[in-house]
Amino acid sequence: MDDKRIVLLVEDNPDDEALTLRALKKNNILNEVVVARDGAEALDYLLGSDGKSGRIRLDQLAVVLLDLKLPKVNGLEVLRRVRADPRTRRLPIVVLTSSKEEKDLVGAYDSGANSYVQKPVEFAAFVEAARHLGLYWLVTNAPPPMTR
After folding, report:
1. Confidence of residue 52 (pLDDT cuts 50, 70, 90)
2. Which of 69, 75, 79, 140 falls between 20 and 30 A from 107, CA-CA?
3. Structural domains of the chain, ranges and CATH numbers in brackets
């Protein structure tokens, strides 16, 4: 897998964070994973607290794995703000959530999500989902050019 491109994992639950990192590693996805633990931190990484520059070079970012139920700024609002900014509107964003609610699914796509993946409960199924995510977003997908 392309281990030069960064994955931004936006996840507030330490158990889900550890599970995601373990599943990626188990699938030999060796990309650097930067973790934001709430929506405000995710926006700071992507857009910067001053709204002018984030903490991640956008041209190195492969994909954002975004939980919906986040403290400070919820995932749908993060998605809306990222899509509203010309620098990040093309950024691949996968909603990775435990929510089964149709309103969350529809809201995510309406707000510009590229994909919606429900977190499997069983570890083996989660590992398989991580494998598919890694293969598609880090190997198969041609990333869009990022606006500067």
Report:
1. low
2. 140
3. 6-140 (3.40.50.2300)
